């Protein structure tokens, strides 16, 4: 009996996958990961291995290690000490072999940072958002989540995976948020989920006003501070600390891989809420815990930034200087009051072309930001100047961008 080939009677899987990648190329948004190594103690200097005969020196302009704490001597020393004290890995989940004294200490420091009773560590900021939001809504019967339209993909995933009702309000639009709150059953559990600093726009949420609405409509609040922890406030507690409203928020979520320079995510809240997430969230329960080596590095970073504002001050000064240089040069830098410096391009192919020229000809590394990270037509370059970026580096970057803008005949800022 003749047997049909698998291809003849089924899907051509290879063709489907190839077409999926081809679509990204055709739309100009296929992502290329750069091959680099940072130079310890010399950030933002790095070495690029892609397309060269040996490493080429470059300057990194798009790292989320905003304060260069991943290079800080205290952080590196703490990680080396932990490595030689306890070894490399954690040994398992927190429930089975993976709970160490480093984890306990760091959770205490993070709870203190935000003025909360407890904190809980996750392996990343994405996981902390997805696991917490999806679990909260499942624990609260008939919960409705109100989500800012520009919330991060991890928050959107958590809300979707919760299976609860959701309402999306226009970005930072208090009137629209209240309209949605008022239209729903007053007795239904409600949660408002939003960010403090929106990393692609560089703007800040009206936290106090959102808390006012939460009080008025008996809603819980969930604030993502990933682009603000370490960066704002007297001790690095984020925008909520800077504005004196941390105590009004139900849950504060943050990352350990940006301003703190290492890896991981966390939430801080009252003891019972943290215990619920610890006890019910699959994304926490079934995941190997962070290596104690990483946790030791974060612990050193958090403790340092609670005491030192020098890094924050230097970073804010660098961001202000670069924004002014780009604006004075007629480049389309987006307005904003944060450390994020986005330059609008508005076309995925051109954004990638600018990025490629900067790297190949000027030794400047900045990734283009395309859909789905930002809406189509809002493609941009996102610069994150830090305390170690000198004015000379900024001038070289500005001059390079002006030359490329002229070369590609791009429209200058009005």
Automatic annotation (TrEMBL):
- MF terms (GO), sorted A to Z: 5-aminolevulinate synthase activity; pyridoxal phosphate binding
The keyword Transferase is assigned to this record: yes
Its required cofactor(s), as named, are: pyridoxal 5'-phosphate
- Tell me one GO biological process term: protoporphyrinogen IX biosynthetic process
Instruction: Mention any Pfam family matching this sequence.
Output: Aminotran_1_2
Q: Which InterPro entries match?
A: 4pyrrol_synth_NH2levulA_synth (IPR010961), Aminotrans_II_pyridoxalP_BS (IPR001917), Aminotransferase_I/II_large (IPR004839), AON_synthase_class-II (IPR050087), PyrdxlP-dep_Trfase (IPR015424), PyrdxlP-dep_Trfase_major (IPR015421), PyrdxlP-dep_Trfase_small (IPR015422)
Matching entries from PROSITE patterns are given as: AA_TRANSFER_CLASS_2 (PS00599)
Give all residue intervals belonging to the Aminotransferase class I/classII large domain. Answer: 58-401
Q: Is the Membrane keyword given for this protein? A: no
Gene3D superfamilies from the UniProt entry: Aspartate Aminotransferase, domain 1, Type I PLP-dependent aspartate aminotransferase-like (Major domain)
Q: Where are the transmembrane segments?
A: none
Q: Catalyzes what?
A: succinyl-CoA + glycine + H(+) = 5-aminolevulinate + CO2 + CoA
Q: What is its EC number?
A: 2.3.1.37
| The entry's keywords | Acyltransferase, Heme biosynthesis, Pyridoxal phosphate, Transferase
Q: Which residues form a coiled coil?
A: none
Q: In which pathway does it act?
A: Porphyrin-containing compound metabolism; protoporphyrin-IX biosynthesis; 5-aminolevulinate from glycine: step 1/1
Q: How does it assemble?
A: Homodimer.
Q: Which family does it belong to?
A: Belongs to the class-II pyridoxal-phosphate-dependent aminotransferase family.
Identification of the protein by name:
5-aminolevulinate synthase
Instruction: Look up and give the organism this protein is from.
Output: Sphingomonas endophytica
